[in-house]
UniProtKB/TrEMBL annotation:
This is Branched-chain-amino-acid aminotransferase. It comes from Periconia digitata. Its EC number is 2.6.1.42. Belongs to the class-IV pyridoxal-phosphate-dependent aminotransferase family. GO terms for biological process: L-leucine biosynthetic process; L-valine biosynthetic process.
């Protein structure tokens, strides 16, 4: 699953619109993250980026984002926010943030300012700010875990930081070295993690939301010349424990979440706002989320804001397969949990490996349709299905409503499928410190102040 090179493709590979986008992103990297040019990415991938080929020598560089310049102003005792008990309903409101936040500002003329750590509070924005009018905004979703071994951990955080760079440049926001963003995230986790995730309550997490918005106060459809990066930690409820499994409503022919040549692969706000009406209607009808289909043939893309997986036996051959949408059309997100599921499946469940008491399977990333799922269910070839993402984690799918009928998804393990349970258990072991770092380096320990 190697990323494409940062060098803009030839006309034979992309159309003129895509070429303009790639060229514009390359220019932005030259201007806004000069020290990162040896490792920057502009492609829909979260792997280690490749070196760009510069069209012309870069201008005199402006200051990059630099975590070592962080200026700290800590909350006073009276400013500290009460940490709610585990049974407090406030935890389910998704409105509670921790004590501090980190900010950094950028402008076209001065580059990045020194970041600041301050007490959590409102942002100052002009009513004409670009993000309020033109959706010039991107973000990431991550978690800070309190492990059962007592340690605080992040899960593969470099992948999120690489992806945020890609999203920022896709939405005309400034670039930055991902390692510097990661250093700021770690600092905020070191500051607020110990109080909000106490050692006597292992198995809990905080949600991390790095965000970048265009703050340029000029009304006009143009590249913003000012931006703000901020990072907050919030309290979210557990979302993967859905009684009876997640129920999905397949989208109609007149609905479309993302399209080839668009920005479905980037984590930008414009991907999410337009989906909320349909999501609300689905919940009003008794379903948990929308299964987003694309095109007249109903190509499966994502389940809500999560990647979608199905386990079935291939028609004709009977080969057991784990199937998910590929990244080539750029209409699904290269999710960190998605990537981890695929890597674990290839390493621990693939045919020819030691899969324990379960049958080994083939891992496939390809274009597939809802009709293929329906036919597999009718023919008894459908084994299970699940969705994956940072918020939902790994959630079993029990039903998909499609063209007036319910497609029932087996859950042989009782509350989920057998393969869903294995993959979810392995990921939990890494995230919560039950699998040693020497065996799997995906869990990154955060030092505590």
């Amino acid at each position: 699953m190697a990323p494409m090179a940062i060098t803009p493709p030839s006309e034979a590979q992309v159309d003129k619109t895509s070429d303009l986008t790639l060229s514009g992103i390359t220019t932005a990297l030259q201007k806004t993250a000069p020290t990162h040019l040896d490792a920057a990415t502009l492609t829909p991938s979260i792997t280690q980026p490749q070196k760009p080929v510069l069209a012309q020598p870069p201008p005199q560089p402006l200051p990059d984002l630099n975590a070592s310049l962080l200026q700290e102003t800590h909350a006073t005792p009276s400013q500290l926010r009460p940490v709610p008990a585990l049974t407090d309903p406030l935890r389910a409101t998704q409105r509670l943030a921790t004590d501090h936040m980190i900010q950094a500002h950028w402008s076209l003329s001065t580059g990045w300012t020194a970041p600041t750590l301050t007490p959590y509070g409102p942002l100052a924005l002009m009513p004409s700010a670009s993000c309020l009018h033109y959706a010039t905004e991107c973000f990431e979703g991550m978690k800070l875990y309190r492990g059962h071994d007592g340690a605080l951990r992040l899960f593969r955080p470099a992948l999120n930081c690489n992806r945020m760079l890609m999203s920022a440049t896709r939405i005309a926001l400034p670039a930055f070295p991902p390692a510097q963003l990661l250093a700021l995230i770690v600092k905020l986790c070191e500051t607020d993690g110990p109080r909000w995730l106490p050692k006597h309550n292992p198995g809990q997490f905080l949600y991390i939301r790095p965000t970048m918005i265009a703050t340029d106060p000029a009304i006009g459809v143009q590249r913003p010349t000012e931006a703000m990066l901020f990072i907050i930690l919030t309290v979210l409820p557990q979302m993967d424990a859905v009684p009876g499994g997640v129920k999905l409503l397949a989208s109609n022919d007149d609905m479309c979440r993302a399209w080839p040549g668009g920005f479905g692969y980037a984590k930008v706000g414009a991907n999410y706002g337009p989906s909320l009406v349909a999501q609300g209607e689905a919940r009003a009808r008794g379903y948990d989320q929308i299964l987003w289909l694309f095109g007249d043939d109903g190509v499966v893309t994502e389940a809500g804001a999560s990647n979608f997986f199905v386990v079935w036996r291939e028609k004709g051959t009977g080969v057991l397969q784990l199937v998910t949408a590929g990244l080539g059309e750029r209409i699904v997100l290269d999710g960190v949990t998605r990537r981890s599921v695929l890597e674990l499946a290839r390493g621990r469940l693939a045919k020819g490996t030691t899969a324990g008491e379960v049958e080994g399977l083939e891992v496939v990333e390809r274009r597939f349709t809802m009709d293929e799922i329906r036919v597999a269910a009718e023919e008894g070839r459908l084994v299970e299905a699940f969705a994956s993402g940072t918020a939902w984690f790994v959630a079993p799918i029990s039903k998909i409503h499609y063209k007036g009928e319910d497609v029932e998804i087996p859950m042989a393990g009782g509350d989920m499928g057998v393969y869903t349970g294995l993959l979810k258990g392995w990921l939990k072991g890494i995230m919560w410190g039950e699998e040693a770092e020497r065996e799997n380096p995906w869990g990154v320990v955060v030092n505590e102040q």
